[in-house]
Amino acid sequence: MKNGDFMNILFLSLASRLYSINDYGIYTDLLREFKKNGHNLYIVSPIEKRQGSKSEHYVEDGVEFLKVRIGNITKCNIIEKGISTILIERIFLKNILTYFKDIKFDLILYSTPPITFEKVIRKIKYRDNASTYLMLKDIFPQNAVDLDMFSKYSPIYFYFRFKEKKLYNVSDYIGCMSQENINFIVKNNPYLDRKKIEICYNSIEPVLFNKDEVEKLRVREKYKIPNNKIIFVYGGNLGKPQGIDFLINCIRENEKNNKSYILVVGSGTEYSKLEAYFKSEVPNNAKLLSSLNKCEYDSLVNACDVGLIFLDYRFTIPNFPSRLLSYMQSSMPVLAATDKNTDVGRVIYEGGFGFWCESTNEKDFNKYLNLLCDYELINKMGKNSKLYLEEFYTSNKTYKAIINHFENI
Questions:
Q1: What is the DSSP letter of 55?
Q2: In whole angstroms, what is the distance from residue 59 CA to residue 360 CA?
Q3: Is the pLDDT of residue 100 over 70?
Q4: Alpha-carbon distance 286 to 278, whole Å?
Q5: pLDDT value at position 76?
Q6: What is the model's pTM?
Q7: Radius of gyration, alpha carbons of the chain
Q8: Is the pLDDT of residue 2 over 70?
């Protein structure tokens, strides 16, 4: 690509909410950067069977969207998810070759999950002589092994590990969310060329949120959240990766505190377990809300004081949750309780915008929670949080990291 030239970019994702380039999120924010710089975008994402829709193709703001109908891969049992995941590859390829048969792509951009796009990518790559870039957001199947979903010696593992290796091999570049992600991939895949593995942070286009006290009070009243306590919020997926048993123990431990309140917002396979706990024990210092739309969720987060991150202690892979960015955007400190292998806690601590503990010790969690019941510290760490976001995690920086490989070629 020479200066002034523009690429046809095929973006593949399992993010089912990709309907408009103007929505906000880690993928749409990045894709807007490509569009701002004149590139042509072709976005392929799924519609799950439960949503009832057929595949559809449409153009919005000069961007072509292809919504492909697939089986259910979320809010379903592992068998249904596994079968649907295996079939995605064939369904995506068939639809791309039907709707985009006359388009010659220059760059294929995609993320994990899933790892089963390899045949789609390989077919288009060699048909069009396209470059390929993997944004590694998930390391599967090892994450499933960590959570005892299946054994490392099972046929399921060997199948998906085979697919994972093929995906890495077909990728010209692999962008990792953090340094520990790079270390893990290099250590466990020594056959890969180290030069093609690099940092590609989770990122967003920061939106200005005003910490308006009147609005904050209005939102808290709307959701019946106390205004005389420090509100610690967890928002996002509520599944096995979050270690829900530990979260419940932290809520129990927090019942002894009179300054802090834990708000949990989200959905997922373990939501019913949390719901059963709230109905059974009726905690006074916590509230559970089902998932909200993005606008309502952002407004609610902005009315809270400290963001929470939970990851199961059994993980050997270094997860780096993207929900961290919504907390940072709202200028919030972050308290993370995770496994020992992720470096998200180190980033938070070294960035001066929060604390970390291992997700096995409720006492340590409660200790840091009490430390953060201090408005002066919250304000100081909140400013650090926003500054760190603007320095490292903006979509413009991620765009430049990717496009750098294609300038002056």
A1: P
A2: 48
A3: yes
A4: 9
A5: 73
A6: 0.91
A7: 21
A8: no
